[in-house]
Amino acid sequence: QLQASGGGLVQPGGSLRLSCTTSGFTFDDYSISWRRQAPGKEREGVSCIRSIGGRTYYADSVKGRFTISRDNAKNTVYLQMNNLKLEDTAVYYCAAGSTVTPGNACPQWYDYWGQGTQVTVSS
Known about the structure:
The structure is a single chain. By secondary structure, the protein is mainly β. It contains no helices and 11 strands. The protein has strands spanning 2-5, 8-10, 16-22, 31-37, 44-49, 56-58, 66-71, 76-81, 90-97, 112-113, 117-121. The strands form 2 sheets. Strands 2, 4, 5, 6, 9, 10 and 11 form a 7-stranded mixed β-sheet that branches. Strands 1-3-8-7 form a 4-stranded antiparallel β-sheet, with no helix packed on it. A hairpin with a 4-residue loop joins strand 7 and strand 8. It is globular. The N and C termini lie far apart (34 Å). The relative contact order is 0.32.
């Protein structure tokens, strides 16, 4: 249903663009989140983009460095990650949910999850 791709090994300060390609549901009806999990840590929210209106959310740790966008024609959400830091190393997951409270960008819960893509920032 969701497939995340675009991860890899990059040096600090480098960039990567993750893609979340979806199928099997009406993409326009779903808000999409990127979440990540580093070794030994809990999964955390990184960024979200709402289905209608395009409202976005960024975790404080990635504000100004990451940009989320969606292409409804391609049923795909992107996460452009610039100025990557060592602490961005994690497995990145995309997830979709259709229930979003007014004024927010992130779903209250997730109906679909993709497999993760590994992002490693290392010198």
